[in-house]
Write a structure and sequence with these properties.
The complex is a heterodimer of chains A (361) and B (305). In chain A, β17 and β18 form a beta hairpin. With 361 residues, chain A is α+β, with helices and mostly antiparallel strands. The mean pLDDT of chain A is 90. Chain A starts with a strand and ends with a strand. Chain A contains 8 helices and 20 strands. In chain B, α2 packs across α12 and α7 packs across α9. The mean pLDDT of chain B is 88. The chains are: A alpha+beta (361), B mainly alpha (305). Chains A and B meet through β6 and α2 of A and α8 and α9 of B.
Amino acid sequence: MSLLEIRDVTRRFGAFEAVKEVSFGVEGGEFFTLLGPSGCGKTTLLRMIAGFDLPNAGRILLDGRDLADTPAELRPIHTVFQSFALFPHLTVAENVAFPLRMARVPDDELKRRLGEALDMVHLADLADHYPHELSGGQKQRVALARGLINRPRLLLLDEPLGALDLKLREEMQLELIKLQREVGITFIFVTHSQPEALALSHRIAVMRDGRVEQLDEPSRIYGFPVNRFVADFIGNCNLLEAEVRAADEGGLRLAVAGLGEVRAPPDGVSKQGDKGLLALRPEQVGVAGEADPAWGNRFPGTVEDFLYIGDVTTYQVRLDNGFRLQALLPNAAAGRARFFDPGDRVTVGWSGAAGHYVRET
Amino acid sequence: MSGKPDPRHTRPRGARLTKWVVTAPPTLFLLAFFLAPALIVLVASFQYPGEFGGLAPITNPGDGREHGLTLENYAFFFSDFLFAEIFVKSFTVAALSTLACLVLAYPVAWLIARSPRHHRDLLVLLVILPFASNFLIRVYAWMIILGPQQAVAQAVNGVLALFGLAPVNLLFSPFAVLVGMVYVHLPFMILPLYTNLEKHDPVLLDAAQDLGANAWRRFWRVTWPLSLPGVFSGSALVFIPVLGMFAVPDILGGTRDMLIGNLIKDQFLGVRDWPFGAALSILLTLAVLVLAGLAAWAARPRGAT
């Protein structure tokens, strides 16, 4: 049995359905992420799990027990808010100790656990400071310590890194992973940032328009998106409309309009006549001055533009049939003879084992 | 070094001039009409009364005195326990009025702050609407409301009669004074409280609930401490005016309900002992300052709001 079970949960606001018959389970100790663009229903879902909102239909179970009649303050579920929501009139120590005070934990035990919690997030030196005296990263750690101190069954994190600048965000990502591993508490993380989701999660539920589009491990979400939305939303992706011409153990032979036949890895289900998409990650696409014999698929084209990002360069290549493809080349890679300039005639290509045929369009 | 003035240097001078032009009139106004009278009152409190009211001159006051300065007025205050009693009674009435205003105003302010944004201005307008009519008329209206033949008194005495108790007179009683004081000053409590409560971030209440606080503790642990600046400014705006108020006790109080305000007014307009009235005013001011100092110390800022 899952720690948390969402069963056919629907939430309506007037005629608008924010969450539509969503079902999934979250396992104990998991770092679970709800990922989606704003308005996809992920925050509404989170608020229902926290107890600030109730579903119109469906059930939310924690350890098999329905939470419908348990108000937010009695649920063993704590939240880290996007704005941190630290109490401005309380010190760091008083903020962190707040849940223990609410639970009427005796003073000596409270002191011990407060010390442990402050040590855990390296805030012991700032115990007597007020929130307005802290930096963004420190506030974030106070909010985390406050959410974790009473050892909830579930910690909900509502875009907690959104208020931090990029450098700090990367630091906090590492700290979050480490913290979650140490305390072993189940995290449900809400974000619209796909790199964050990929970096942090054990599993990701990609949401759109109130539904879960795909629920899987990060590498499978990235490598095997189930539809155009997921492929497009997670990272960059070249999407080519394709029809299956033949399918066998060796792979798929796809007909892509204007390109002719393209080879793709087998998926074991598609059959001749299926229509779908070929999803190609930019890093799977190569660019070369002349045809590279290792590529199973290769097409001539012209470099239109490129973005030099330091460690990598992204090329926009227009194929002779009018398609635009994105290719991402590592700059430190051996064998890179030179950079290509806009207007250069090149061959783009990818191996027959690269790419992923998306059945749903 | 060129002889031409750097144009950048003229800007601060212009800014300084603007600052003077803007701040000088109110400064002069306060000097002329606040500081000077306060000093006059201070000096008057050490003078003798004039033969027919007013003040005896400081030099050559007559009556065989060498000069016109004396501590007699203060000595007189401390010579009779009656005056201290009036002070204590006045502070008690002020404290009770403040407390009653706070209890009544807090829910109102909270309700306004929680109502939809486009309703708030209207509700605030309703709170200050009574100021549109004359203060004395509004207090006289309470004379009618609390009069013995009116519904309020009839109802109260009806209930008392059920328990076999003698009827009471609501009007011309300390109760009527308190009602009048609270009525007059309520908006001064509601407005600062509302201004404070409106700024509270509702996510803090969500956080408190999320972390295990029920409604009662959410109020006392989050809303109340965060609203203290509003509570203090509202209390000051009620407490201090109530202390000096003489019209309400004059109209609604009985003959025995004399407060400091009435006492001071009588010194100037009735007994014509200006110096003693001045001394009372100075003592009242000192008492308020001491109290304000204590309050400021108690409410010294710890966290930021």
